[in-house]
Amino acid sequence: MHTTEIAVKMILDRWNGSIANWNKHLNALSDERLMDEIAPGKNRGVYLLGHMVAVHDDILRLLDLGEKQHPELYEPFLKNADKVTAQIPPVALLREYWTKQCAFLDEQFGKMQLNDWFDKHTAVSAEEFANEPHRNKLNIIITRTSHLQYHTGQLVMLQ
Amino acid sequence: MHTTEIAVKMILDRWNGSIANWNKHLNALSDERLMDEIAPGKNRGVYLLGHMVAVHDDILRLLDLGEKQHPELYEPFLKNADKVTAQIPPVALLREYWTKQCAFLDEQFGKMQLNDWFDKHTAVSAEEFANEPHRNKLNIIITRTSHLQYHTGQLVMLQ
């Protein structure tokens, strides 16, 4: 196996492993429990879940896989802090979004060829990319895995 | 730049970025504040810090960079949960260990050639590695970056 192939496999394995770990913790928490703050005065579990769907929704755009599927989640879960937006979707619906989104991303990633991962993502110009070849699609997976792990460390506080 | 080189750079950039982010939060917290629990009944900040030094100490062994420098941290910060070990090093000393450890790892990583990252780490046998070439040194960095992000999400709760 070529080193590039090995590196891409490791990065995607870490993404998938991080999703699985998040799911393990998410599935252990009831809808009611997710309405609690992870610590006094901090974000609620539901905010972390909505935030994750909103951030991963943007991966579609960055990887040129289509339009956002949940643009309405930007305001309550990305632009605004928790408890700012009065009306947010119920936990059960966010769980459904999350599950479908994970399956969709998994399907799309499965169609990508090795070199596709080293193409520029959509938030960088061709000129910038010529000098900064690391601003590619694979790097989106690397940074979003970090982001997911960061919030997984918070979600577990509800257990 | 070759794709393998790009992939290794992205992974090391994410490691370094994660260290910098942890340090930003760590440096914003006083020694006294680090003695507090991140939430009622949860780990204290000092435990997270000691845990991080203990886990990164093991990177030396896994990457064949030498012996552990702080084997005494295994029991209080890895084997045992927080508040089990009566005597732990003061926060100021753990900060010093951490800073020196980061500098040492950075220096060692700087000496590694591209292909060194794809050599097997020390916890896998040559036979296993022949079939599982992803169990290499670079994968240690990938998984430890995840681990660091997970606990960074917890450390910030003290702010």
From TrEMBL, chains A, B:
Designated name of the protein: DinB family protein
Gene3D superfamilies on file: dinb family like domain (1.20.120.450)
Superkingdom of origin: Bacteria
